[in-house]
Amino acid sequence: MKKSKIVQINNSYIQNQREKSKLTLAEKRQKNRFMASILILVVFLFILPTYNLVQSYQTLKDRESQLVELENQYQNLVAEQEERAALVKQLENEDFAAKYVRAKYQWSKEGEFIYNIPGILPQ
User: Fold this and answer.
1) CB 114 within 8 A of CB 106
2) pLDDT tens-digit readout, 76-95
3) pTM above 0.70, yes or no
């Protein structure tokens, strides 16, 4: 084995410099840990509002779809109400009411025969 030709000086100056470099390295590690903890805290603080925002957006979209469904139901009910109002107005006429009852409920006068034809009966 060869001996190294490099001689390391081990005096008080070198030892002081090593201690300073160790302290500097320890300070850097401590600063890095502190910055990492702050970064984690900041990320956490941004995640919570983002989650709440996404949840609120989903709720809003659900409510919008419910609103559309309810508006469709409302339109259907309005149309049905108009049809029934028209039927009530027509039923005020005695001739129409008699025809309606005879067709819908197969009511007949004495001696009459009733033949059902699909699609002709009023609703």
Assistant:
1) yes
2) 999 999 999 998 998 898 88
3) no
